[in-house]
Write a structure and sequence with these properties.
The complex is a heterodimer of chains A (352) and B (409). Chain A is built from 16 helices and 5 strands. Chain A is of the alpha/beta class and 352 residues long. A 5-stranded parallel sheet of chain A has the order 2-1-3-4-5, with helices on both faces. In chain A, α3 crosses α5. Chain B is built from 9 helices and 12 strands. The chains are: A alpha/beta (352), B alpha+beta (409). At the A-B interface, α2, α9, α10 and β2 of A face α2, β3, β4, α3 and α5 of B.
Chain lengths: 352, 409
């Protein structure tokens, strides 16, 4: 956690308490409606809101905070919290930060970022469409696969996709249209309060195990002499997408060294050096982990692997396509296919 | 407590199967919905039914469940509430309220009414709520990192194993390819040697002494053994590379087996072994690769002769069984120990039993035979009793519905 720059942002806890107090002072009925536990929850939410806000400001990307608010709106709506409460919370946040932030530059950025999110919030939907819509490629398989996982039947889920590959569908298609899509859907189902965290974790773990059944196919591709080190940055637990990326690189003939979730920066740097990697792929799903990405890239640039090509990916980089510059990377890619194109371009020496 | 009792909440008493038996507190108007006798799960939004089922399963398994957020659906309206439950004897009491604090408080009051140990429930709830903080205090962060590392190590190990397996597969293929090349290159000069050997022997036939003739004979049998070895190595390398090619045609199996038996009769006669053939009538034609199946029959009948004593009998018989055709070769030879039977189908494995006339054996024949029979969609079985003899059954499908899936030339 030492690499995340949470510690360098002073007073989040103080601001969060002030925000919660302001919210409850303005809405005294909340105390009777939600009790002490409700207040504790409000404080917890305030911490998240401020953390996301300050990360967005530090990285210079207001759109990340708006995206987070959009996600929160859907998540809270499914738990019976109306959008008006969230909008009010943003208004109180504006007031608290206008008074509480001493640094004029940070204050101006914070207020501007809040204003953008507040303006967009009313326009943003309070529900998100399913990722398994009719007409998507392999939609039927993806739906059956997810149902099997939610039934706790991973054998059935595995046999569905194995049969599909045996029938001629490529492993890549299964990755993109079944695994990736159902992972997004599982996230959405948790977001709208349809499944528990335990179910979400079961589905993810089962998919990871099922992916491993394709390894004999993935690892038999002839090699082209290029090496990738891939990992989730310190603090980041959403690892399945970067594992998919590593598998796609293997299929494209790269030798890959996949380090997993929540990897300390020093371990990534060490592996880059030891394997004489051509590219390092760094993944962050949560905006709050962007500080750790920037810190890791900075450390790599000042190490003996200074010339390593750095490819970043994950939800924040999809939300803001220019974010890779802000963290000091060489490129980002919205999906596995594009990641390979970018990596090959970087290694071939073509500029961007 | 009185203020808490006025706040919104529901208290539902269910059976262990989740059937609602009683509603003891109800500020949502469940009473008007005729829910008694229905499943507890039906109170919830269809989409969060999975989560509600998990809540109930957890409750039954652990005797108590604390602070689950679930979407109630009452009169078409969805409300997210917090739920607490406990089990006493065969009844489950479940309390829902807008916050976990209210749900816990209401639940304590409710279970007191229902004769459960309210203090114990309250204690459990507090313990569960405190658990997170205690773990924090004990260095949750360290364990969390350690858990990540452990998981990463497992995944990496799995990936490395898969990589090594792929590498081993590749090396094995390469070995078979080289084996094929070497065997092929050895066969050509061997044929030249065999040709000149025959030429010399014939030209010198009149001048050779008996001892020299015997040397010629040993040279010839050695060359033939080498040729057999090379041919089998070539076949084996081909199968290992997945290159078994079958040229299928409709074959009169009775004729094929009868001819093969006739060809082997000379060999059997030399050892004074009777080689008998019989077949049932009206055996249908079967789609086979004639040459490959001849190779199979020669091997099986040849083995029976090799391991049989003089003055015994070998029966070769054809019969059908529903959609299968069976070729049975039965000898009254030495038999094979049971522990060796399955091993004999593996490459370079030989039985501990010796051929009765010192014949040679490479140890690849049965591995090749099984590949060919399997390639035809059939199977091969060996049954043997030491001292009594061996029975080999080759079973082939008559309705040749596998022809499409056979590897095409």
């Amino acid at each position: 956690m030492d690499e995340s720059n949470q510690a360098s942002v002073p007073g989040i806890e103080t601001l969060a308490i002030a925000l919660t107090n302001r919210h409850y002072a303005a809405r005294p009925e909340l105390s009777t409606r939600y009790g002490a536990a409700g207040r504790a929850k409000c404080l917890e939410d305030a911490r998240y809101h401020l953390d996301y806000l300050l990360q967005s400001i530090q990285i210079g990307s207001p759109i990340l905070f708006t995206a987070y608010m959009s996600w929160s709106k859907v998540m809270l709506a499914a738990r019976g919290i109306p959008a008006a409460d969230l909008e009010a919370n943003l208004d109180y946040m504006h007031e608290v930060l206008a008074e509480g932030l001493a640094d004029t530059e940070i204050r101006a950025s914070a207020l501007r970022t809040i204003a953008i999110a507040r303006r967009e919030l009313a326009r943003l939907p309070d529900a998100e469409n399913t990722y398994l819509g009719v007409g998507e490629p392999l939609a039927d398989i993806a739906r059956d696969y997810l149902t099997a996982l939610l039934d706790g039947d991973r054998q059935r889920a595995a046999s569905l996709v194995l049969k599909e590959v045996k029938a001629g569908t490529s492993v890549k298609e299964v990755y993109l249209n079944v695994f990736q899509r159902t992972q997004h859907e599982i996230g959405r189902l948790w977001q709208i309060n349809r499944i528990t965290v335990a179910e979400e974790h079961y589905c993810t773990a089962a998919t990871q195990l099922i992916m491993a059944q394709f390894y004999p196919h993935i690892f038999s591709t002839p090699k082209i002499g290029r090496r990738l080190v891939a990992a989730c940055v310190n603090g980041e637990l959403h690892e399945i997408s970067v594992r998919m990326i590593a598998d796609f690189f293997e299929l494209a003939g790269w030798d890959t060294y996949y380090l997993g979730a929540n990897v300390p920066g020093a371990s990534i740097a060490d592996m880059v050096l030891r394997q004489r990697a051509h590219v390092v792929g760094i993944s962050a799903t949560l905006t709050t982990n962007l500080g750790a990405v920037a810190a890791l890239i900075k450390a790599l640039r000042s190490s003996s692997s200074a010339n390593i090509k750095v490819l970043v990916g994950g939800a924040p980089f999809n939300t803001d396509p220019n974010l890779w510059r802000a963290v000091g990377a060489d490129a980002s890619a919205p999906d596995a296919e594009q990641a390979i194109v970018e990596a090959n371009r970087l290694v071939s020496g073509a500029g961007k | 407590m009185s203020a808490e009792l006025q706040s919104p909440s529901i208290v539902v008493v269910c059976s262990e199967q989740g059937v609602i038996q009683q509603i003891t507190r109800d500020t949502l108007g469940l009473a008007g919905l005729d829910v008694i006798g229905k499943s507890f799960i039906e109170l919830f939004d269809r989409g969060s039914a999975y989560k509600a089922v998990e809540f109930f399963k957890f409750l039954i398994r652990h005797g108590a469940a604390f602070d689950w957020e679930l979407n109630l659906q009452v009169n078409g309206r969805i409300t997210a509430w917090h739920f607490v439950g406990s089990v006493a004897e065969t009844r489950c009491v479940v309390t829902g309220a807008p916050s976990s604090f209210d749900a816990a408080a209401q639940h304590s009051a409710a279970v007191a009414v229902h004769g459960q140990d309210a203090a114990a429930i309250e204690r459990t709830c507090k313990e569960l709520a405190l658990w997170g903080r205690q773990v924090d205090a004990e260095g949750f962060s360290n364990r969390y990192d350690e858990f990540s590392r452990l998981n990463n190590d497992l995944v990496n190990m799995q990936r490395e194993l898969a990589k090594k397996n792929a590498e081993l597969d590749r090396i094995n293929q390469e070995k078979n390819r080289l084996l094929g090349i070497v065997a092929h290159d050895l066969r050509n000069p061997l044929n030249v040697i065999l040709g000149y050997h025959g030429l010399l022997r014939d030209e010198l036939a009149d001048v050779l002494a008996q001892e020299q003739r015997e040397i010629f004979s040993v040279v010839r049998s050695s060359i033939e053994y080498m040729r057999q070895l090379i041919d089998e190595l070539l076949d084996f390398a081909q199968f290992e590379l997945g290159a078994l090619q079958l040229h299928l045609e409709a074959v009169d199996v009775v004729e094929l087996v009868r001819n093969t038996v006739a060809l082997n009769r000379g060999l059997a006669n030399r050892k004074q072994i009777e080689l008998a053939f019989a077949s049932e009538m009206n055996v249908p034609a079967v789609m086979l690769d004639r040459l490959k199946m001849e190779q199979v029959l020669n091997n099986i009948i040849g083995n029976a002769i090799k391991f049989s004593h003089p003055h015994t009998r070998i029966d070769v018989r054809i019969y059908t069984d529903e959609k299968r055709l069976i070729i049975r070769v039965q000898d009254r030879g030495q038999g094979i120990p049971a522990a060796e039977l399955e091993r004999l189908f593996k490459p370079f494995q030989k039985t501990s039993v010796k051929p009765t006339a010192g014949e040679s054996s490479v140890g690849l024949g049965l591995a090749i035979v099984r590949e060919i029979v399997n390639g035809h969609g059939g199977s091969i079985q060996l049954e043997s009793t030491v001292g009594k003899g061996t029975e080999c059954r080759i079973t082939l499908p008559v309705a040749n519905d596998r022809s499409d899936s056979l590897r095409a030339p």
